[in-house]
Write a structure and sequence with these properties.
This protein is mainly β. The protein has 1 helix and 15 strands; from the N terminus they run E-E-H-E-E-E-E-E-E-E-E-E-E-E-E-E.
Length: 252
Amino acid sequence: MVFDTITGAASSTATTFGGAAINAITNFLNGGGSEEANIYDNDLNIVDSDSTTRKAQFDCSGITAGQTRSMTVPDSDVNLGSVGTHEIYIPAGAMYTVTTNGAEYATRELATNDIMISSFNFDPTTSEKAQFNWATPANWDAGTIRAKLYWTTTGGGASDTVDLDLAAVGFANDNPMDATVGTAQNMTDTWIADDDLHVSSYSSAITIAGSPVAGELVVFQLSRDVATDDLVSDLEVLGILLEYSTDASNSS
């Protein structure tokens, strides 16, 4: 068998390309043997099948010299980085009442297993309020947010519905904080059973007043809409789940 001699570029060394080399390449491509290849990260492009001008590269410059780092792929589709939608839970214990028509923070113990209910309790006839605040992460996209209500009660009935409104306003450093909250969106749900956990669907998109940007403080205000809420007992708010979106993979 005759083998070709391959002459590389000026910085390369001429080498004979023979059977052993072919076997090594075959083992490398088929996953057999102990062969490995070092490919410069800026020499390897992953290109879009519809347009090869769309490219992605690995960047290994942040790895400590002499170290090999592995990326483990889970048994599911994955979107690299954390750009997208995220959730943060605000428990009742992180909220605070307002002086004017404020909801009441309370705790109670369930009878059998001593599970504690920690909640802000909203009256069925007076539109009471509570607030909490959120320091937005640096990778927040400054868009709308949505909210989901976690609640329970001790005096509900069949077909009773609850309606809790959530509005918000944002503040930059040195902004006056005596500001009006934005347009509220409601979180609605139907009674299932007393002392059961109830979780609403997500609200419609909430626009935060003050046009805040990433890294600023947002104050949220909860209020019970007693005009449409027909639960005849206190609405016990256990917490609020906020959904927000990011436009960068990290906050640095």
